[in-house]
Design a protein that fits this description.
The chain has three helices and ten strands. The chain has about 180 residues and is α+β, with helices and mostly antiparallel strands.
Length: about 180
């Protein structure tokens, strides 16, 4: 298999939104064929394995409009332009979990849907969690976030995946990292 990359001939912007954009790219593939590729462009995201203790993990339950249901998930959030992933992880922990991490360990970066989307998800384990102090800036959730925060044992969370109580793939995968 060749490592030659497709040659981009042109891009048509189809949609630009708050969370993602959609482009149609015309490319010449390494085999010489010219095709159009639909691509969802995403700034990337962070996924948090917030762990108050070595055997405990925080999940959030939130309504996901596109899925039309309430889901248990690992806390996560999108990156802002130019934002460092570690800083985003700390901020999301404060906003969604209500705690400040003392330690942030990068576990890896993965591509959730590379067939049509360029998003990267960077997973972090956050430990040494503390309650915010008056000196900390107040946490402000996004307007579309309605969350229930709950702590589980890692074993309970893994059982929730097996039992179908966790349907979110990033969460199911993230639980394999701890």
């Amino acid at each position: 298999m060749t490592d030659t990359r497709p040659q981009l001939l042109g891009t048509q912007a189809v949609y630009r939104g708050r969370t993602f954009a959609v482009d149609i790219d015309e490319v010449t593939l390494p085999n010489g064929r010219t095709v159009t590729m639909e691509v969802v462009r995403h700034r990337g995201s962070v996924v948090l394995l917030a762990m108050p203790a070595p055997d405990r993990i925080v999940l959030v339950r939130q309504y996901r409009y596109a899925a039309a249901r309430w889901l248990w998930e690992l806390p996560a959030g999108g990156l802002e332009p130019g934002e460092a992933a570690e800083a985003a992880a700390a901020q999301e922990c404060h906003e969604e979990v209500g705690r400040i991490p003392g330690r942030i360990d990068r576990l890896g970066t993965f591509l959730p849907s590379p067939g049509f989307c360029d998003e990267t998800m960077t997973f972090f384990r956050l430990t040494e969690l503390r309650d915010p102090s008056p000196a900390d800036a107040p946490a402000v959730r996004d307007a579309d976030e309605v969350l229930e925060v709950q702590e589980f044992t890692v074993a309970e969370a893994r059982r929730m995946v097996r039992d179908g109580a966790i349907l979110d793939l990033k969460t199911a995968f993230g639980l394999t990292l701890v």
